[in-house]
Amino acid sequence: MRRPIIVGNWKMNTNLADAIVLATSVKNAVADLGVEIILCPPFIWLYPLAEILEKSPSNLKLGAQNMWFAEKGAMTGEVSPNMVKVLAKYVILGHSERRSNFLEDNNLICDKVTAALENGLTPIVCVGEKHKRSLAKKPGRPNKLVTENDLFSQLKGSLKNISRNDADKIIIAYEPVWAIGTGDAATGGYAAEVIKDLRDILADLFGGPVSERIHILYGGSVDSENVREFVFQPEIDGVLVGGASLKAKEFIKICREAAGGR
Ligand code: PEP
Q1: Given CB 3.0 to 4.6 Å as the disulfide criterion, which of 42, 171, 215, 258 pairs with 124?
Q2: In total, how many domains does the chain have?
């Protein structure tokens, strides 16, 4: 069974003091939980947090929220994979806020995924449809939800240059855009149906056994009240948490609930 993964995406939040308190609280609370936890603070806090988490439990790691794909050069304001890897093991790529606010397309995201893998970083690749779908069924596929083609092309486009050997080093985060930061989380059933479709695509791209090893998370308004609805679904391998990852008590509760949920 794939071990559940809980990602905390702090986005552009926290001052240094808050970041230290939050990371230290999580570190002190999660040692014995059977889940992997990845904290993704703003770039600028990676260095102090890497020092604080140096002797942290082995199930707690740091991730970046983004990076550029080239090693170095005239890219004012950007951070390269070989810079990130000094401080973090994971990197979120293709988050919907990067796609919409910074116009990142699948080709660019694929270049970043490739660069992350080349540098030994685990990419957490986000995909998600913009609009909530009805539970209408596809003709001939009665158990499949109708989801936007855009979602599937995001997955295929973001992974198009990835080899079968590397595919299971990637984590996918299914994050419906309509559920991010809105309080309107998908139901566990909806997320599980879409994730089954995504896994089918991964099987087409990389083969069934490889696709079975890839973690696919759900993200979008997850909190301690609803997290079990997702992690109880065998198709869903964890959650990516935004707003609720900024409150230590709430995030720790999410991790505990998730650890008990499988
Ligand atoms: C996110 O940051 O990707 C996210 C899912 O945010 P929230 O949990 O606040 O919806």
Answers
A1: 171
A2: 1
**Is 129 noted as a catalytic residue in this protein?**
no
pLDDT range class, residue 262, cuts 50, 70, 90:
low
Q: What is the pLDDT of residues 109-139, one digit of tens each?
A: 999 999 999 999 999 999 999 887 765 555 5
Q: Which atom of ligand 1 is nearest to the CA of 95?
A: 3
- Position 110 scores a pLDDT of 98
CA distance 209 to 12: 37
Q: Which of 36, 95, 129, 193 is catalytic?
A: 95
The CATH number given to whatever domain includes residue 250 is 3.20.20.70
Look up residue 107 and give its two tokens: 């080709």
95 is known as an active-site residue: yes
Give residue 123's identity as a one-letter amino acid code: P
- Ligand 1, residues 180, 224, 245: which to mutate, most atoms within 8 A of Cβ? 180
Dihedral sign from CA coordinates of 168, 174, 175, 179: negative
What's the predicted TM-score (pTM) here?
0.94
Q: Which domain holds residue 246?
A: 5-260
